[in-house]
Structure formats: structure tokens, C-alpha cells
Amino acid sequence: MIPLNVTFMLADWIVKGLADGTFERVGGVIRDVGSKQVVTWLRDMTGQSSQITTLGSSPNNLLNLIFSGANLAASGVNTAVTGKGLADVNERLGGVEQASIGNIAISGVNLLGTVANVAISGKGFANVNGRLSGIENQLGEIGQSIQLTQGILQLTTASSVLNLGVSVMGFAVIAQRLKELEKRLQEAQELLNKMNRKIDLSFYANFRAALDLAINAFTMSKAENRRSSALQAINRFLEAEHIYTDYTDTEIEQKSQIADEYLLTLSLAYLAEARCYLELEEHDTALRRFQEGATVVRSRIHKYVDLLLTSNPAAYLQPQLQGQIDLQRLTRIYQWINPALDENAVFEMQRENLFKIFHDPKRWLDSLPPAILTRIEVQGGWFGASQNDLKEEAYKRLPQALEVMESMIETNRRFEAYQTEVEAISQLGISFHEWLKLSPSTETKPDGAELIYIIPSQPLELLQLSH
């Protein structure tokens, strides 16, 4: 088995690789750009509270407690000064300095008890304060490092219905995401009614019932009962996949504004099914279901992205959108479709389009899909919305449409990255439940940390996520 390092802090060599372009984040993995070998898995903290002890307050609050204890010892406690007491304080400070951030809370609490029971000489107290200042600087550097890492990973702008790591996408989390999607569809119902369109939400109840069945299945004590109930849930998830594939295709064909909701629901259905197989330790079957799901979902996300790019994608580069959308963001959309494209290639693709949209904006407006704008959404005067009203509203919608594309692409990448986890489990020779339990063994979660990093001792060559 290849050893794994599980940590809250990303290794410096990986941060450097991300910064210089040697490595890239694709969904929930960090991989080598050239060889496509996986060097790290990312895992959200969601659902990890039972395994992770948090500080419960910022590092500065912890330092304030330590300083308060030290000041109390110097001014308010009338105990004798002993060399042993001061040595004990310094020894404990040494332990804090050498410990990982995970041990600071425990060492700090213990330190309070020691400092509060000894009086410190002027020279000794100055030494203690000096060393405490060093700890404060260390904590500050850790906080900056966490923020820097998250910035390099571009996680602050990456929204997705899926978490980073299949291990934190349990049935309860899937149920919550499903509830959010159903709510969004209910909110869209009013507009759809104005367009004489109705949507059937009854199948969401069936999906929720299947999730409840799966949750109950894996809390059963007898193996045969677990498997029997899990297979029943799998059958319901298969039914959901067929239903939401049809719904998605229909909505994309109609260029609908709710196609993305059904597409995300379809992703959750495949994930729920594959998760059942993982819980049963049927890794090969889970991988096959992920592969099929990835093919089905990606092809439809591609169609939906093409739809949102509109008949003239240069619209996203209109001067009115300066400061909201730049060429780099648009290029990242195109690179998901064709990784060989760079910013210059994308600009050349849009050079003529920029000319066209400037001279004939009406043609672009008339071709806009309902996924972005319908005339019924724009309030006009007695004679309806003017061409200028429509154009202004359409331009206002484009930043949101780009965010939807980015979110859909991020969701797709996370879904495909789940396959690498299943492959890794097989290569590492561990069970899914052992993979679930991976967590930093000697660290306490530092304030501001949102991820766990699972780093193999050597990069893994995996078949999935090749594009």
C-alpha cells in the first residue's frame, strides 16, 4: 500500500506547483498538468465534525487567553517565584512552538494552569512574552498560508451542487441538495405559469423516498438486510436517472431556464446510486456507474453551456460588462470544451463576432434562448418592452449566465473526480469505509481551514479524468 499523508495544510511543493502551472486543480483533485497523475485529493470539512476537533475560536483568542494567564501570574498571584515553575513554563512554551497547529489549543490550556500558579521574574516574564509573540506570528503565517492556498485553488469562486470528495457526499447531504433544487424549481413555477408551462415535481418525492430507504439500509445491523434494502434503493435511483435524463433532454431542447435544475438532479441520482455500491464495497460496479453517469451528464452540460454562450458569445465581452467578465473567465469556459485553447485562440474566435454584435444587436437579441431571457420577464410600456429595454436586461443577465456555466462545469469536474477516488481505493488496497475515516491524526483543525488534503507518497496514475 502506498502511504498517505492526511493534513490540513497543503505541502509547499504542491502550492508551488499550483502557482507555476505544473499542477492544476480539476474538481476535487490536484494533478500534474503533463502526466495527469494525481498528487492530492481535496476533501470538504462537511460531515467531518465527528472526526475533527476545532479550535472553536480564532488563534488570536487563544493567544489572548495565554497572555491573560501570564499577566495574571505576574501581577495578581502572590505565590513564590521558583526556578522550577519558570522552567516548567518555558518547557511548555517549547512544546507549543514545536507542535503543529493542532496541538496549540491543548498546550495553551495546559499552559494557563502552569502560568497561573507561578510568579515570574521580570527577566523570565520578558522571555515568556517574547516566545508568545513568536507563537502569534506563527499562527498568523498559518492563517495567511491557508488563505493563499485557497486562493491558488480558486475555491472561493467555485460554486457547485457537489462537495469536494465523494466521501462527504453522503445520502443526507444529497437529500439536502435535492431539497434546494426542488425549492428553486418551485420558485421558477410562477414564471413558467405565465408561459403556459407546468412542471411535475412529484418525482422529487420518489427520489427523497429512495434516499430515506438508502439511509435506513446502511443503519441495519444484519448484512443481508442491508444489502436487500440497498438494492431496493438502487432500483429507485435507476428509475430517477431515466426520468431526469428525459426531463433534462426535453428542457434543453426547449432552451429552458430550468434545464440546469434537472441536469443537477440527474447528477445527484447517479451519485446516490454509486454511493450505494461504495457502501456495499462494490468498487468496480460503483466505478462503472460513475463512468456512465459522467458520459451522460457531461454531454448534456456541454449542450447547456453551448446554449448559454448564445448565438454570439462575444456578447460576454461587451464594454458594459467590463469589471464583471473578462477574457480569462470566458477562456476557462472554452477550455473545458477544448483544453488546447488559450486566451489568444478564444479572442480570435470572437473577433468577427464582436463586429457583428456591434452592428446588428437585434439579431442576437431575437435569438436569445429562454434560459437567459424571455420577453415576458421585461416590463415595458403600452406597446411592450422596447428593443433597448430587452438589450439592457439581456446584458444584465449575462454575468449570472456565466456564473451558471462556471457552476455547471465545476459540478461536472467534481463528479468526474469522484471516479479517481474509487480508482485510488482499489490501487491502495483499502476499503471505502477506511477511505471515509482518513483524517489528520495529530492535527487540530486550524481556524479558517476548509479542506483536508490526502497526499499519496508518490503520484498515482489513474485512468479517469484524462481530459
Mean pLDDT rating: 78
Poorly predicted regions are 47-86, 96-120, 138-144
Q: Give the C-alpha Rg.
A: 27 Å
Provide a count of the helices.
Answer: 15
Task: Describe the overall structure.
This protein has helices spanning 12-20, 59-75, 83-98, 101-115, 122-152, 171-194, 202-217, 223-253, 259-279, 283-308, 327-337, 343-359, 361-366, 387-428, 432-436, and strands spanning 4-7, 23-26, 29-32, 38-44, 451-456. It is mainly alpha-helical and 467 residues long. It has a domain at 59-152. The protein has a 5-stranded antiparallel β-sheet with strand order 1-5-4-3-2. A hairpin with a 2-residue loop joins β2 (23-26) and β3. α2 (59-75) packs antiparallel against α5 (122-152), α3 runs parallel beside α5 (122-152) and α6 (171-194) runs antiparallel to α9 (259-279). The two termini are 27 Å apart. 35% of the residues are buried.
Tag the structure with descriptive keywords.
mainly alpha; 467 residues
Summed up:
61% of the residues lie in helices and 5% in strands.
Please outline the helices and strands:
Layout: E1 4-7, H1 12-20, E2 23-26, E3 29-32, E4 38-44, H2 59-75, H3 83-98, H4 101-115, H5 122-152, H6 171-194, H7 202-217, H8 223-253, H9 259-279, H10 283-308, H11 327-337, H12 343-359, H13 361-366, H14 387-428, H15 432-436, E5 451-456
Antiparallel strand pairs: 1-5, 2-3, 3-4, 4-5
